[in-house]
Design goal:
three-stranded antiparallel beta sheet; about 15% strand; eight-stranded mixed beta sheet; Rossmann fold; N-(1-d-carboxylethyl)-l-norvaline Dehydrogenase, domain 2; about 475 residues
Amino acid sequence: MTIRKATILGAGVMGSQIAALLVNNGVKVQLLDIAIDDANPNKLSKQGYDSIVNPKKSQLYDATFEGNLTYGNFTEDLNEMSDSDIFIEAVKEDLKIKQDLWKQVASVAKKEAILATNTSGIPINLIAQGLPEDAQQRFIGLHFFNPPRYMKLVEIIPADNTKPEIVEELKSFAEDVLGKGVVLANDVTAFVANRTGIHTLADIMYRAEKCGYSITETDALTGKVIGRPMGTYALRDLVGNDVGSFVIQGLLQDPGEADYFNVSKRILKLVENGYLGNKTKKGFYKKEKGKRLVINPETLNYSALEKPKLPILDDLGKKLEKNLAIIFEDQSKEGIFLWETLRNVFVYAARNVPLATDEFIDIDRAMVWGFNWRQGPFQLWDSMGFERVKKRILEEGYELPEWILERDNGFYTEDMHLENVTPISELITDHVWDRDSSSLNVVGEQLLFKIQTKYNVLDDELVR
């Protein structure tokens, strides 16, 4: 089936952005939300529509695409048979709300329509409960990462009764039409990326508190020097301190997860006092008069940032593999902290194959595409040295699954890639130059010029 028309259920921030993504890729979209005002039943969906087509900050590539976007409400637009090829739900993370809505949708959706929920954590099988058998066979999780226009990752989570052909149709649509990178996940709490990402955030924050590291020291240690786009506390502000805590509480309901999660006292205090991060304009950090300030988690007062003075930071630079080698050998307090950060990621990622996903490469894809890590857990493990890392983990008393114990030569072979196409770096036959601002390389009989400045700006080196 070719997906030509979609109905998006929920016109909030996420639903609206998903709608814009589909419209930009040639799909006709109907954007619906609940009718909260009898006099203006389309109030919420119109707000979502306006955020998409706003001429000052349009989410559409071209203003003419507006013709492929309409809006309405659940009451009036889900009361007769629909011709939509796919329904994508992005309403409040409340099981009953989702179940009631899907029963309404199932009564009007055509028999071949795909029924997809964008839930970030509620089990897909629970949401599908109570639906007719034929609807359950077309029901599936489709988890976009925020903002969906820019984030490559999409997790597809089949329910127990989902037909294999629905999985393949949706995977093809996400990859070939929307241009996304797909990870197939099992129906476990937080799926793959959030499960792995929230684990390492919680682990770092808990151990940082025990070690007495400040917020800025922790972020300096756990950001770019280990291949992550920002430090732990900065990322928690971006994700939302309440959101991360919600995911952790969901994971802790599974007895099998309890040994892998500890709760930070700092995060609990901030959430209790409404310091939820960027969305409340105050969290571990905030901006005031153009300056970035950091919180004192004891007093909840803010002060100017101070550059962390940790000796190991003088040795760690931009080259990730060199940093990993230093971390493995360094026996200072900070070196041990960083080793334990990576070790705990390795152990938890290993546990989640095949619990969360069937292939280890999909955990790496999830973290690179969904959290913007430079390398995923198993790539990092290989880069640090497979055998010596495995040996040290076992010597320190941690268990590894049989599938890793049986391996001798690491995870990746030369022909394995995260992408489904050959990386351009492997097609380069010669280098003309490689500078901070740009590189010029030979690819076959052609030259490939690449701008390498931040945000691709034209700096003095490029224009002189």
